[in-house]
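Retro notes, structure queue

What went well: the backlog is down to a handful. What didn't: a couple of records were mislabeled last round, so from now on we paste the full input next to the output in the thread. Example, using Response regulator rcp1 from Methylobrevis pamukkalensis:
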Amino acid sequence: MTHPQPIQVLLVEDNPADADLTRETLETSKLHIELSVARDGVEALDHLRRAPGYDGMPRPDLILLDLNLPRMDGRQLLAEIRADDALQSIPVVVLTSSEAERDIAESYRLGANCYVIKPVDLKAFQTIVEAVEGFWFTVVKLPP
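Corresponding output:
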């Protein structure tokens, strides 16, 4: 499946090492993926709503969301996204280290499209990111 326009991904991640690893993994893709990174929920919401300083930011085709973030955590951000008519159709993949059943249940209750647990092993992390990429950009039909 070819995409005439680059696939826009917003990664909401406060850990620079995880953000770099995600970027490096997506850069090896055969697909043309443009990754933007927000360090917390407030910055992500500014990006999504094109607040001053984010005016020209493209609408993401997919959001990769960590739960444990400063200022506004992933749960709060997910609730904001799903409550906003202009944003609610954007698929959100929770990509987090939390294995807590309450976090999984809460994420789905708030409208996450899927929940993926980040492995600590470097190669396993890359494999997970590649699997998310493969599923969301070659199998799933994303909203326009």
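Agreed that this is the format going forward. Reviewer comment attached to the example: The radius of gyration is 14 Å.
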